[in-house]
Amino acid sequence: MSIEQTAWHDADRLLELSAEFAGWRLGRGGSGHWWAVRGNELVRTPNVEELRARLHEITSVRQSV
Length: 65
Hints:
This protein is of the alpha+beta class. It has one domain (3-64). It is built from 2 helices and 3 strands, in the order H-E-E-E-H. It has helices at 3-20, 48-64, and strands at 25-28, 34-38, 41-45. A 3-stranded antiparallel beta sheet has the order 1-2-3, with helices on one face. The chain is elongated. The model has no long low-confidence stretch (mean pLDDT 90).
């Protein structure tokens, strides 16, 4: 995959995550890690699907409290 294709793919993933997790700031750092920040909560992982799973866990815990 070219750099341009990778950038478009990452942008698509960020749009999906933004729609799914309102209130979180999301991104991908220069180290290749995906991250999400809300208030003083931070989630950082090298895999976007792991990020999604961890955000689901955090969100479900918050909703059940």
